[in-house]
Response regulator (Prauserella oleivorans), 221 residues
Amino acid sequence: MIRVVLADDQALVRAGFRSILDGEDDISVVAEAPDGDTAVRLAREHRPDIVLMDIQMPGSDGLEATRRIVADERLDGVRVVVLTTYEIDDYVYGALRGGASGFLVKDTEPADLLRAVRVVARGEALLAPSVTRRLIAEFAGRVARPEPSPRLNALTEREREVLTLVATGLSNDEIADRLVLSPTTAKTHVSRIMTKLRVRDRAQLVVLAYESGMVTPGWLG
C-alpha cells in the first residue's frame, strides 16, 4: 500500500485529491495538513511514502516543509512531490533544490496523478524526459556561476558520462542506446551515481549537474 500525506491549505483541494487517491486499491491517504508545520509533523508521525506538498501555504510554506522533511534522517524513505499552479516557476526550482522528487500542476488529470504517485513510490523522480528538458533549459539560465562540486570526484568516467546524459533529459533506455548498454546496466549506473553523490533521485542529479557546471544550456540541442 502506498501511503500518502496531503498538504494544502485549501480543504476542497485536499478533498479532491483524497477522493481520487483513496479510490485506488494500492493507495491510501493517511493524513491531511493545512500548512507546512503540520505537514512536517504528520510526515514524522506517519512516515508516509509520499507527501503531496502545496508550496504556498500560511506559516511555514511548502518549500520550508520540504527542506525539513528531506533533511530529517528519520524520514529518508519519504518522497515529496510539489503541487504547483504553474509548471515552471521560482517555487519549483526552490523545491527541487530543497530535495523534492518532482512536481505536479494542480489541474493534472486524475490518471496522471495516480501514475505520478506510483512512479515516485517506486523511488523514481517525477520528471519525464520531455519535462526534464524544458525544466533544465529554464533552470540553466538561472545558474549564474556554476561551482564544481568535489562530490563529483567520486564518479568514474563512465558514471560522469551517464550523469551528463541524465542531466540532458535522457531516460535509462535512451542512455542505454546512446552508450550501447543494456537498460539494466544503465539503470545500475544511475543508481550507483545517486548513492555516491548522496542524492535521493533523478531530479537531484539534474540540479547537481547544472549547478556544478557539468552540463550547459548549449548541450540540450
The two ends are 41 Å apart (CA to CA). The chain has a mean pLDDT of 84. Residues 116 and 126 are 6 Å apart (CA to CA).
